[in-house]
Design a protein that fits this description.
The complex is a heterodimer.
Chain A: E1 4-13, E2 16-26, E3 31-36, H1 42-50, E4 57-62, E5 65-66, H2 72-78, E6 80-83, H3 95-102, H4 109-122, H5 124-128, H6 139-151, E7 157-161, H7 169-186, E8 190-194, H8 197-203, E9 206-211, E10 214-220, H9 221-226, H10 228-234
Chain B: H1 3-9, H2 12-38, H3 43-74, H4 81-101, H5 113-145, H6 154-175, E1 180-181, E2 191-195, E3 198-201, H7 202-224, H8 226-236, H9 238-243, H10 248-274, E4 276-277, H11 283-296, H12 301-323, H13 335-349
Antiparallel strand pairs in B: 1-4, 2-3
The chains are: A alpha/beta, B mainly alpha.
């Protein structure tokens, strides 16, 4: 049984058929990436998994438990944490309060304190700015805060939506480095949605290529990187 | 930019509004100057105006907090909030009358055991009223506002006005349309004197003190508890809050409950001060508190407190300070005019209020 399994999901925006039967699986300890053009349905897939959108058909299972009827806030408690596109940090809350908000469902005070320490170790700049309002951080720092806030929920699967969006190239590199470290050192399972297909396939174990709401290709990241179709369409070959 | 170019950019309405603002300031300054020159009031008079203003203002502040909490989280003005205040005060009337009949509101002085029982009874009345108002607010949210979540903003606003009438006439049906006199707590009519003619009435001490404690409790709740954190998170970004595992609907209901509780508490304080309740009693205080919330910057908690106190003081001192100097007979009748003139001026010159930030950033 896979950790996270999405089977035949159809999601609509009003009458627009956005996901046309998406199926994918994430194993524990993996980084899996979803790549594809704008509007292919990458973010929609993540929103469907985290419960922000309701599919009309299909199933989402976490370790065999059906999540489809659960509201978004309940899915977080089950261990799927979604770091949304555009970071969506709480601009008026301090950095520390943003992180605390990420752990709001947890009752183990000691564990929360330890995880906050871990986040500060991973992102030393957040520790320096812990008393500052989230909105005063730079774009890269906000992304780190968004990821750190996600980690505070003790995710079994972390859904990352476009973490490199709008960042300077040097920061993009740093973010991908962090993703690799989170997975390698701390064993966080990650489902990563990215426009930057090359970088995403670099860090990922496996990948899925989405096209207009359906999965076009799937396979080990290394294979997708050398696939001529992928190179042609997404890697600027 | 050179002055000539800046002048050319000035829109005619800006000029007119500038003139309006300047004339208001001129009238206030001239009136105050005349009053102060005449020496009609001495220091003790001003002190008692100030205390009366603070007393009235702390009631406004408590009600204003309800407007601001709900606005902060839903971007909606709950125009039925004045009726939530009434619901608590009127229902508590029966408890107060019953307890008064048992002698629980009678004492010779506050320092005695009977006096302690009077204070305890007042706390009980406040808690009871807060509970009633809180329930009304939560039911209102569940029945009237939650189904409209996601509807265009005008729709819940109209619903709120409808809900306000509905509650007013429900209360009228339940409790009748007459004025019901609250039991007189005669021990609170005593005055605390400081010498030199300065004094404060005990009921003013009780009102200001209770309001202060409630406001401290609110700040501690919002800043220091998990639910308070959830409220702040939902106020900023509902969807992101849901992604943190926060139950958004429950948090919104809690916000209504807290705002309602403060209004209910304010209802008892108001009744202690004015000794009467009526189904219509919440209308003007509700509008005033809304003014106070806008004055302080709607959505902003310290703003609502400051706005309420400021409005209360302006209303209390204003008529004597600058209207009397202008030779206006019975200036005290014009305090509502002062309050609503302030609302209009704030909306024109500083729509964000005293402590508010720019709304456009978030819209």
């Amino acid at each position: 049984m896979s950790l996270l399994e999405v089977a035949g999901v159809h999601t609509y925006y009003g009458n627009i058929h956005a996901l046309k039967g998406i199926s994918l699986a994430v194993e524990a300890g993996e980084i899996v990436t979803l790549i594809g053009a704008n509007g292919a349905g990458k973010s929609t897939t993540l929103k469907t998994i985290s419960g922000l959108l309701r599919p009309r058909e299909g199933a989402v299972h976490l370790e065999g438990t059906d999540l489809l009827r659960e509201p978004a806030h309940e899915i977080v408690r089950r261990g799927i944490v979604h770091v949304p596109e555009g970071r969506r940090i709480f601009a008026r809350l301090s950095v520390r309060d943003n992180l605390a908000a990420g752990a709001i469902t947890r009752d183990d005070k000691a564990g929360v304190a330890a995880d906050m320490e871990m986040v500060y170790e991973t992102f030393p700049r957040l520790r320096e700015r812990r008393r500052q309002a989230g909105g005063t951080l730079s774009g890269g720092e906000q992304q780190m805060l968004a990821i750190g806030r996600g980690l505070m929920g003790k995710p079994r699967v972390l859904l990352l939506d476009e973490p490199s969006m709008g960042l300077a190239p040097i920061l993009v590199e740093e973010i991908f480095d962090i993703i690799r470290r989170l997975n390698g050192d701390q064993g966080v399972t990650i489902l990563l949605v990215e426009q930057n297909a090359l970088a995403a396939l670099d860090v990922a174990d496996r990948g899925y290529v989405l096209e207009t709401g359906a999965i076009r290709l799937e396979g080990p990241a290394a294979e997708l990187r050398t696939n001529p179709e992928v190179i042609e369409a997404y890697l600027g070959g | 930019m050179p002055w000539s170019r800046r002048l050319r950019r000035l829109h005619p309405t800006d000029v007119i509004m500038g003139i309006v603002g300047a004339s208001v300031i001129a009238v206030v300054l001239y009136g105050s100057y005349e009053t102060l020159r005449s020496g009609r009031y001495d220091g003790t008079d001003w002190f008692s105006f100030l205390v009366a203003g603070l007393t009235q203002g702390s009631i406004y502040a408590l009600i204003a907090l309800g407007y601001t909490l709900v606005y902060g989280i839903l971007r909606m003005i709950n125009f039925a909030h004045g009726e939530i205040f009434t619901a608590g005060a009127m229902t508590t009337f029966y408890l107060a009358t019953w307890l008064s009949g048992k002698g629980w509101l009678t004492a010779d002085r506050l320092g005695s055991a009977a006096g302690a029982r009077v204070l305890g009874t007042i706390v009980l009345l406040i808690v009871f009223s807060a509970l009633i108002s809180s329930i009304v607010a939560v039911v209102l949210e569940r029945v009237a506002y939650r189904p409209l979540r996601g509807a265009p903003r005008l729709i819940p606003l109209i619903t709120a006005i409808g809900a306000s009438f509905f509650l007013q006439y429900t209360l009228r049906g339940l409790y009748g349309s007459g004025i019901r006199p609250y039991p007189d707590v005669s021990v609170l009519n005593r005055e605390l004197t400081f010498g030199g003619g300065y004094s404060i009435a005990m009921d003013e001490v009780v009102v200001i003190g209770s309001a202060f404690v409630l406001m401290l409790a609110l700040v501690a709740f919002v800043q220091g508890t998990r639910t308070g954190m959830a409220m702040r998170a939902v106020a900023e970004d509902r969807q992101a809050a849901a992604l943190m595992g926060i139950d958004v609907d429950r948090t919104i209901a809690t916000t209504f409950a807290v705002g309602g509780a403060l209004a209910g508490a304010a209802g008892v304080l108001y009744a202690l001060l004015f000794r009467q309740t009526q189904f219509f009693m919440g209308f003007i205080p509700g509008l005033k508190a809304f003014t106070a919330a806008v004055l302080g910057g709607i959505g902003n908690i310290p703003g609502a407190m400051l706005g309420g106190l400021f409005l209360g003081i302006a209303e209390s001192i204003g008529p004597f300070l600058f209207l009397e100097g202008l030779g206006i007979p019975s200036p005290n009748q014009l305090k509502d005019a002062i309050a609503f003139t302030m609302l209009v001026l704030v909306l024109i010159f500083r729509p964000t209020g005293i402590l508010g930030e720019r709304v456009s950033k978030r819209a």
